[in-house]
Amino acid sequence: MKKTLVSALTTALVVGAASTTFAAANPFSDVPADHWAYDAVSQLAADGVIEGYGDTTFRGNQNITRYEMAQMIAKAMAKSDVSAADKALIDKLAAEFSDELNNLGVRVSNLERNADKVKWTGEARYTYTSTRDEQANGSQKKDNTDKLQFRLYPTAEVNNNWHVKARLTASTLMDKDAGKDDSDKVELTYVYADGQYNNFDVKLGKMPLYSVADDGLVVDDFFSGAQVNFGKDLKATLEAGRYDLDRAQDNFKDAVKESTADKAANYQGIELNYGPNKFRMGASYRHFNSAAFKDVDNYRNGTSQSDDANIWSVGAGYRFDHNWDLFGAFAQNTEADNNDTAHSIQLSYKGTDIANKGTWGAYAAYRYLGNNAVVLPTYDTAHSHVNEKGWEVGASYVPFTNVYTAIEYFDGKTLDTDRDAKTLFGRVSFFF
User: Fold this and answer.
1) Which residues, other chains included, contact 158 with Cβ-Cβ below 8 Å and sequence gap of 6+?
2) How far apart are CA 235 and CA 299, in angstroms?
3) What are the tens digits of pLDDT across the range 2-56?
4) Per residue in 294-315, is it b (16+ CB within 10 Å) or e — as a string?
5) DSSP character string of 147-211
6) Which of 67, 131, 356, 410 shows the greatest Cβ crowding within 10 Å of its Cβ?
7) Cα distances (Å, whole numbers) of residue 127 to 81, 163, 337, 421
8) How far is the CA of 109 from the CAs of 103, 104, 105, 151, in angstroms?
9) Element containing residue 106 per DSSP (H, E)
10) Helix/strand/coil percentages in the chain, nearest 5
11) Alpha carbon separation from 200 to 210, 280, 363, 419 (Å, rounded)
12) Which 3 state secondary structure label does DSSP give 52?
């Protein structure tokens, strides 16, 4: 296919070039049909060094100018795995079109950017979770999960300010050799348009929902709607849309199953974060509205009911140096009468960087997670089954570039019954 395109290009260039003088002073003048550069470019294209304009075409039906020739040469110069003969041709072309190449600057960057407007990254991860919950008779309920997940993250450029971002996810359970409900299908986890303007950012669509102020104590999930961020040192976030309670922690999810109400709650949130140096702090307020809250277990006392969840949170942290970091957060649901508070304090040492082999980190934390105060916390050992308190330790390590490993352990008690609750969590992720 490339050689066919090259032939078409060469033929069109020879036929279409009308100028018989070089006209070097004008970068938009046609390169003469008998110029040696055509043979050189054709040879580079035949060798696979020059690939056209980024969409596999050479646009041979158009006259080629010195400017266009310089664009192709610039792309050839960016190649590192070329033969000595091709390198000599590239150097000769670069010398001939040096003025145009020197003036391309930004245009060359734009050309390379436009060559692939959609960029893909991804992750393949294995997760092991083992829980041990004490029962009323003193026995232990055991639950083990082996899960494989594949994630793709496409990012498409719309223009200089706007991008479209998405995540595609497929999961499978290793013990079943099949996905949930015997399905391994790929699902669209989220997709949104992101417009960035200096200290102002707007997102539209289905996007990540993360409570930055409390570092994920309240929620780490997704919602459909709009998000606006603005500010520099003091950053404000406004959010509004719909949130699917069927993805929330078990207490809220179970209420949705029992209720005839819509699974999706109306959602509005506001958050402020300040952290220009070692010290950082934040505060947030989130309002969820759904008739399903009337069916939440142990939500209100007596006969009073509420279809709201009004959750506020605060958080503060201090980074002592490059190694040590301390962060604490508190949250409360003012509509709930029971299990209405949550808090966490965590001391972290170092941290991993998947681009740097050998980096590692560790942490120790205390969690108290009232199941009416949190929606879906970020903690791996208590992501959906909350209403527990206890200590958690964890460590992460990068054995190879772009390979991440982690192990975490939680040892605590249930809030209502004071029974033992233990969770072991492990993960291996391959990023690409």
Assistant:
1) 164, 193
2) 33
3) 444 344 444 433 333 333 333 344 566 777 777 888 788 888 888 888 765 444 4
4) bbbbebbeeeeebbbbebbbbb
5) EEEEEEEEEEE-SSSEEEEEEEEEEEETTTTB-GGG----EEEEEEEEEEETTEEEEEEEEEEE-
6) 410
7) 38, 31, 35, 20
8) 12, 9, 7, 29
9) helix 106-115
10) 20, 45, 35
11) 18, 20, 34, 48
12) coil
DSSP 387-403: -EEEEEEEEEEEEETTE
- What is the rounded CA–CA span in Å between residue 422 and residue 374? 20
Angle 36-46/66-77 helices, nearest 10 degrees?
40
Q: What is the DSSP letter of 351?
A: -
List pLDDT tens digits, range 208-225. 999 999 999 999 999 999
68: phi then psi, degrees, rounded to nearest 5: -70, -40
pLDDT of residue 265 exceeding 70, the answer is yes
Domains in the chain and their CATH numbers?
2-115 (no CATH), 119-431 (2.40.160.10)
CB-based contact 428:405 (threshold 8 Å): yes
Q: Which amino acid is at 378?
A: T
Q: For residues 404-416, b (16+ Cβ closer than 10 Å) or e, as one string?
A: bbbebbbebebbe
- Comparing 65-69, 181-185, 321-325, the range with the smallest average pLDDT is 181-185
Radius of gyration of the chain measured on its C-alpha atoms: 29
CA dihedral 369, 373, 376, 380 (to 10 degrees): -10
> In sequence order, what are the residues at sequence separation of 6 or more whose Cβ sits closer than 8 angstroms to the Cβ of residue 105?
none
In sequence order, which residues have a C-beta less than 8 Å from that of residue 40 and are 6 or more positions away?
89, 92, 93
| CA–CA distances in Å: residue 183 to residues 170, 176, 178 | 9, 11, 6
Per-residue tokens: 93: 């072309």
- Report the distance separating Cα 288 and Cα 381, nearest Å: 25
- For 60-112, the pLDDT digits (tens) are 444 578 878 888 888 888 777 788 788 888 888 887 887 777 777 634 445 44
Residue (of 150, 155, 179, 185) closest to 431 by Cα position: 150
Six-digit token pair at 304?
Answer: 């009073």
Question: Which pLDDT belongs to residue 183?
Answer: 62
For residues 209 and 85, what is the distance between their CA atoms, to the nearest angstrom?
54
Q: How far apart are CA 261 and CA 372, in angstroms?
A: 18
Burial, 176: exposed, middle or buried (Cβ in 10 Å; 0-12, 13-18, 19+)? exposed
